[in-house]
């Protein structure tokens, strides 16, 4: 990742990164991430796996990768707002709901 890979997202008032997840040379997933350095929080803004690769463990592998990235960058927590149909996926991956807003989930990575 380089600073040039960030871009300003007008809707969010924070620069975001897009990470692609590959199976060999085939892109199979995408995650949009942004952060709050003061809170040591990494937010997942958007997350998706290509349809024909869904339900094969790819999404969980990608979440594991994001968690390792978080550890390496010393973020404390990952937060996201889950769509209603993806809540079970995040629960299976160890995220807990918060009372911030509907569908809000978090996972503590570092203390
Ligand atoms: C939700 C999504 C990211 C899951 O990725 P995936 O690669 O299909 O998920 P995995 O195969 O890693 O599933 C891991 C576990 O979560 C479960 N799971 C997956 N999707 C689920 C869902 N929508 N609801 C409940 N459980 C789900 C799986 O059954 C699996 O459980 P198991 O370990 O007991 O077998 C993917 O289906 C997707 O991209 N959906 C469309 C976009 C979307 O909804 N993105 C999330 C927006 S925040």
Furnish the topology, listing elements before pairings.
Layout: E1 7-9, E2 14-23, E3 26-36, E4 41-49, H1 58-72, E5 77-81, H2 87-92, E6 96-97, E7 104-108
Parallel strand pairs: 4-5
Antiparallel strand pairs: 1-2, 2-3, 3-4, 5-7, 6-7
Bound molecules: coenzyme A (COA).
In short:
This protein is α+β, with helices and mostly antiparallel strands and 111 residues long. The chain has two helices and seven strands, in the order ββββαβαββ.
The run of helices and strands is EEEEHEHEE
Question: How far do the termini sit from each other?
Answer: 25 Å
Bound molecules: coenzyme A
Structure class: alpha+beta
> What profile does the largest beta sheet have?
7 strands, mixed
Quickly give the CATH architecture.
Answer: 3-Layer(aba) Sandwich
Radius of gyration: 14 Å
Q: How many helix segments?
A: 2
Question: Mean pLDDT across all residues, rounded?
Answer: 90
CATH topology: Aminopeptidase
Kindly report the name of the CATH homologous superfamily: Gcn5-related N-acetyltransferase (GNAT)
Shape: globular
Tally of extended strands? 7
The percentage of residues in β strands lies in: 35-45%
Q: Which segments are poorly predicted (pLDDT under 50) over 5 or more consecutive residues? A: 1-5
Strand order of the largest sheet: 1-2-3-4-5-7-6
Work out the helicity level.
10-25%
């Amino acid at each position: 990742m380089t600073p040039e890979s960030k871009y300003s997202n007008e809707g969010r008032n924070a620069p975001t990164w897009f990470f692609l997840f590959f199976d060999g040379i085939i892109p199979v997933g995408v995650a949009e991430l942004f952060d709050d350095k003061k809170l040591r929080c990494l937010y997942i803004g958007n997350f998706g796996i290509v349809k024909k690769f869904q339900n094969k463990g790819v999404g969980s592998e990608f979440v594991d990768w994001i968690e390792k990235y978080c550890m390496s960058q010393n973020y404390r927590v990952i937060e996201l707002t889950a769509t209603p149909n993806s809540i079970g996926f995040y629960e299976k991956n160890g995220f807990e709901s918060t009372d911030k807003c509907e569908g809000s989930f978090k996972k503590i990575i570092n203390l």
